[in-house]
Amino acid sequence: MRNAIVMMAVILSFMTGQTQSDPPKSPKPDVGSGRIAWFDITTSNLPQSREFYGKLFDWKFIAVQGTNQAVEIVASGTSIGTLRSAEGKISGFNGVVYVQVPDIVESCKKVKELGGTVVTGFPFNLSGGAGAVGLFLDPSGHPMGMYSRTPLPSAVK
């Protein structure tokens, strides 16, 4: 029930554009059909996850009005999703969102430095030289992915 109330508050805040930021927000950009327009990351430790993702991706966070169980994620001045509290343990079967990074090897090192775990077998190159992907678990166990347009060097594979 608590999750339903928190989610409703997040959805209503998102739909009405009401957050604690002063300037009114412009409409969300049209990212195109089939592309990620918004995402939620669930966590069992909101302060720890804010610190982890803030340092890993240089994300900023805005409080969601009416709840202390969620914050809006801001990247390069654009709201892209929410980080929200979950009841109980995080499932390894949660959906995975891939965030673009400039260097997959350095980003995997940073995941480990910040207390996350890079999943065995990652990172690896995509076929056709399309880049590389990495999968990790944040400190609360939420799976996340990273994508780099640059393939791994031969020695790292």
Describe this structure in words.
The radius of gyration is 16 Å and the shape is globular. The longest helix is centred in the first third of the chain and has 15 residues, at 2-16. The strands form 2 sheets. Strands 5, 6, 7, 8 and 9 form a 5-stranded mixed beta sheet that branches. Strands 1-4-3-2 form a 4-stranded mixed beta sheet. It has 157 residues and is α+β, with helices and mostly antiparallel strands. It has helices at residues 2-16, 46-57, 104-113; strands at 39-43, 60-63, 70-75, 78-85, 98-100, 117-118, 124-125, 132-137, 143-148. The protein has 2 domains: 1-20 and 36-88, Signal recognition particle alu RNA binding heterodimer, srp9/1, CATH 3.30.720; 90-157, 2,3-Dihydroxybiphenyl 1,2-Dioxygenase, domain 1 (Roll), CATH 3.10.180.10. Strand 3 (70-75) and strand 4 (78-85) form a beta hairpin.
Total count of helical runs of at least 4 residues: 3
- Which percent bin holds the helix content? 10-25%
Report the principal-axis shape. Answer: globular
Largest sheet: 5 strands, mixed
At the third CATH level, what is the topology name of the largest domain? Signal recognition particle alu RNA binding heterodimer, srp9/1
- Class of the largest domain in CATH? Alpha Beta
Contiguous runs where pLDDT drops below 50 for at least 5 residues: 1-22
